[in-house]
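Researcher: Sequence recovery benchmark, item below. Answer with residues only.
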């Protein structure tokens, strides 16, 4: 049996940067994924929005660390991941959202984030494409941005390989190998790997793996759709999020890529649960109505395609990261909700610090907030 210092289950938004962080920390690392290539789970459905501006303090910390990784990727590793420091604008057209966002901005600023409340005129001057009528203002965070999830995933895997990590694709982990009260490796449909540390970064499949040793990960698969238009001349600066509820939706968000296409998404309300990844005919008319109301010029832009993917949701919309309390050496990093791509690099470096026992006070706070065994009392303001 091949031996590793750490085996990561899942080459997705969390598994890829985790493999990189562990290999860079000098650990002999293997990544095992059931799919034939990287990023075939929720990762490839993500639209690539990256922000540190969350409601949960732990997400703000990890988000900030991740943001630095994405922002500096090109200068550090040389790959173009189509990163753009576009900023985010959470816009408000009703007093209710304006009040909520202004409170959040105050919290985020006290956590040291670069974010400010802009009034309607200021927002419109910055994003003239937005519908002006009724625009009260926006929470604007100029340091946030976006990149290509596909390019970023490839770049992370290549960097992980250069740092010594190895990848096993088309190999499903069928069981965790446990001796006494400690994990000693994984069994796959092709063989087995020995390792004193196993990281469960299996996304929508993480809860089933955890159940094998009696651990409960409170994750449900929420289905979300997204789409992309043809490329048009640049007209939209920041990634725009409109958190007004609409018919059958909790919010809508979009941005224009560096290549000119507009990528968009909508959060269904009530949530649609399940594992049916076939895109629907209901999504496009629904999201188009919202987008054209928000950004009227989009009525002239043609949509190229839509797709559907999973948000691995937890009850409080924050991730589940922590050691199993039953099996030594088993670490869960799952339940990333709608932010696994943007949190991935920060989760990866946090896990590397856990393995090297180099945790800071902030890390301990993050892990206390994200323990899979928490009571799930609150709920993240920005899902
Ligand atoms: C439409 C849409 C838009 C989104 N937009 C954004 C965004 O802009 N920004 C953002 O941060 N997030 C976004 N997300 C959320 C993001 O995609 C997820 O949070 C993230 O991809 C989850 O990462 P993960 O690594 O936990 O899971 P995944 O990326 O799904 O990776 C899990 C991997 O584990 C593998 N696996 C599972 N079970 C096994 C097993 N038994 N053996 C071996 N391998 C296994 C799978 O094949 C998969 O590759 C979006 C999601 C959707 C659906």
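Model:
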């Amino acid at each position: 049996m091949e031996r590793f210092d750490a085996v990561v289950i899942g080459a997705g938004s969390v598994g890829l940067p985790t493999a990189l962080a562990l290999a860079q920390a000098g650990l002999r690392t293997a990544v095992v994924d059931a799919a034939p290539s990287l990023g075939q789970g929720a990762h490839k459905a993500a639209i690539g929005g990256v922000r540190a501006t969350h409601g949960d303090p732990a997400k703000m910390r990890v988000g900030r660390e991740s943001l630095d990784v994405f922002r500096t990727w090109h200068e550090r590793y040389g790959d173009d991941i189509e990163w753009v420091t576009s900023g985010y604008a959470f816009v408000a057209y009703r007093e209710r959202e304006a009040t909520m966002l202004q409170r959040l901005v105050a919290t985020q600023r006290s956590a040291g984030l670069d974010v400010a409340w802009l009034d309607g005129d200021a927002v419109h001057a910055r994003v003239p494409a937005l519908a002006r009528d009724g625009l009260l203002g926006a929470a604007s965070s100029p340091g946030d941005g976006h990149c290509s999830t596909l390019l970023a995933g490839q770049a992370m895997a290549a960097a992980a390989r250069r740092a010594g990590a190895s990848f096993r694709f088309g190999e499903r982990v069928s069981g965790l190998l446990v001796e006494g009260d400690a994990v000693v490796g994984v069994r796959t449909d092709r063989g087995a790997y020995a390792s004193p540390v196993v990281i469960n970064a299996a996304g929508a499949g993480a809860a089933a793996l955890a159940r094998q040793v009696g651990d409960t990960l409170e994750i449900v698969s929420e289905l979300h759709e997204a789409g992309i238009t043809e490329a048009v001349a640049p007209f939209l600066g920041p990634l725009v999020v409109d958190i007004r509820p609409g018919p059958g939706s909790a919010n809508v968000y979009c941005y224009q890529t560096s290549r000119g296409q507009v990528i968009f998404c909508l959060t269904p309300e009530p949530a649609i649960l399940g594992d049916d990844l076939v895109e629907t005919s209901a999504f496009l008319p629904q999201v188009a109505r919202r987008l054209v109301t928000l950004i009227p010029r989009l009525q002239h832009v043609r949509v190229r395609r839509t797709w559907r993917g999973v948000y691995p949701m937890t009850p409080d919309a924050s991730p589940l990261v922590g050691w199993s309390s039953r099996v030594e050496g088993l670490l869960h990093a799952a339940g990333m909700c709608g932010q696994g791509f943007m949190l991935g690099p920060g989760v990866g470096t946090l896990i590397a610090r856990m393995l090297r026992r180099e945790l800071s006070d902030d890390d301990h706070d993050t892990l206390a907030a994200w323990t899979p065994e928490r009571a799930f009392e609150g709920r993240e303001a920005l899902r």
